[in-house]
Amino acid sequence: MDIRKIQKYAEILIKIGINIQKGQILVIRAPIECAEFTRMAAKYAYEAGAKEVVIQWGDELSTKMKYLYASDEVFDEFPSYLKEFYLSLVRKGAAFLSISASNPELMKDVDPKRLIRQQKVASAEIEEYQNRLMTNKNAWCIASIPTVAWAKQVFPKATDEEAVELLWEAILKTNRIDQKDPVKAWEKHKTNLKKSISFLNTQNFKLLKFKNKLGTDLELELPDNHIWLGGSEFTQDKVEFIANMPTEEVFTTPKKTGVNGIVYSSKPLNFNGKLIDEFQLTFKDGRIIDCNAKKGLDILQELIATDEGSKYLGEVALVPYDSPISQANILFYNTLYDENASCHLAIGRAYPSCIKNGENMSDQELVEKGVNFSINHVDFMFGTSDLEITGITQSGEEVKVFEKGNFAY
Fold first, then answer.
1. Are 169 and 157 in contact (CB under 8 A)?
2. Fewest CB within a 10 Å sphere: which of 71, 136, 187, 209?
3. What is the structure's pLDDT at 203?
C-alpha cells in the first residue's frame, strides 16, 4: 500500500474530519494494532496546532478476557479515573477521534448480559460526555483502518497480508483518498449532500413510507420542526467537522411514537462484537412489539431490552443504493461502512440537533417534541436496490423520494 495515501488519509481525518483548532486538545481512541497510524494522525494534529494529543489505547483481546473471567460485580462499576478522564477533557473543549476497527465476532462467546450491564453503568457515569457529543458541543469523528482480524472477516479467502491490503484499498477509495485532490473531492461531496438536505428540509414531510421486496412495509412519522442533516456539521462554536468518515447519509429523527409496520434488515449488524443477521422488527406506535432473526436473536432481544428507549427508534437515514460504498459490493461487518452503503434506522437515542434549536432544549422539552432517549444508538441497515420511499407532505400530497433504491429527484 502506498504510504503517501495512508498519510493523506490521516491528514484528512485531522484537518477535515476533526478540523482541529489551534490550541485545542485532541483525544484519539485506537486499538493497539493501529499504533503506527495513530501516531501519524497525532503528528498531523500537532502540526496543525493542537495543544496536546491524548491517546487512549484499547486492546480488544484483553477486554474479551475481562468479560469472560472477571468477577461479576465488576460489570456494575465504572472506574472513577475513567470518568474523570472523559469529563475533564470534554469540558476543556477537546475533540475526539475514534478508530473503529474491531473483530466483528470477537465477543461471540461472551455473555451479552455482561456487555449490557457495563454499557448501562458507563452511560450513566459519563452521560455529560455523551450529551456533549450528541449535541455537537465538541467535534468528533469516527474512522477506520484495517486490522488483520477485521480484514480476514471481510476477505476470508485471502492471506493475512492480502486481506489487509484489500481492506486498505477499499477504505482509501471510499474516503476519496484515491482521487487527485481528496480535499476538493470532499468539498464537492459535502455540497452534493447539502442538495439532498435542502430538498428534504424544504418538503417538511409529515411522514415517510418505505417498501421493498424483502418485506419492509413501514410508515415513519417525523416530528414537527425536524431537521435533516448530513455530511459536515458544526459545533456550537461554529467549527465545521465530519462525524463519520466515510459518510453518504442524510438523516433526521423519527417521532418516537410515530413508527408503524415491519422492517427487514438488508445487512448483518455487529453489536458489541456479536453478529445479528437476517432479522426483522415490527413496530406499533413507535414501539418494537416483535422481532425475529436467523442469527443472533438472543443478542437482538438483549439490545431491545437494554432500556425503555431501546424499544424505539432514534434515527432514519437515507443513503442511495448506488453510493460508492454500496457499489464496492463489500460487506464490511463494520457499521460505519455498512450503514453508508444502505438506508438505515437506529435503535435508541436520537440526536437533539435534528430538531430546530434542539441542542438548547432540556431533556423534557425534547421528549415533548417526540425525541427518543436511550443509552443505545445502534444503526441497522434496511436499504435495497428496490427500496421505494414516498414522502407525505403536511397537506397530504405524496412525493416520490426514492425509486429503485435511489433518490427520485
1. no
2. 71
3. 95
| Average pLDDT across the chain, whole number | 95
CATH tag, 3-174: 3.40.1830.10
Chain center to CA of 182: 22
- The b/e string for 293-302 (b: 16+ C-beta within 10 A; e otherwise) is beebeebbeb
* CB of 101 closer than 8 Å to CB of 150: yes
Q: Give the pLDDT of residue 166.
A: 97
Handedness of CA 19, 23, 29, 31 (dihedral sign): positive
Q: 57 - beta bridge partners?
A: 30
Q: Give the pLDDT score at 315.
A: 97
Task: Give tens-digit pLDDT for 353-377.
Answer: 999 999 889 999 999 999 999 999 9
148 residue type, one letter = V
Which of 190, 184, 201, 194 has its CA nearest to residue 246? 190
Q: Give the three cell numbers for residue 87.
A: 469529563
pLDDT in tens, 233-261: 999 899 999 999 999 999 999 999 999 99
Please check whether residue 398 is in contact with residue 366, taking contact to mean a CB–CB distance below 8 angstroms.
Answer: no
- What are the φ and ψ backbone dihedral angles of 291, each rounded to 5 degrees? -150, 155
Question: Is the pLDDT score of 273 beyond 80?
Answer: no
Q: Does the pLDDT value for residue 11 go beyond 80?
A: yes
Q: What is the pTM of this model?
A: 0.88
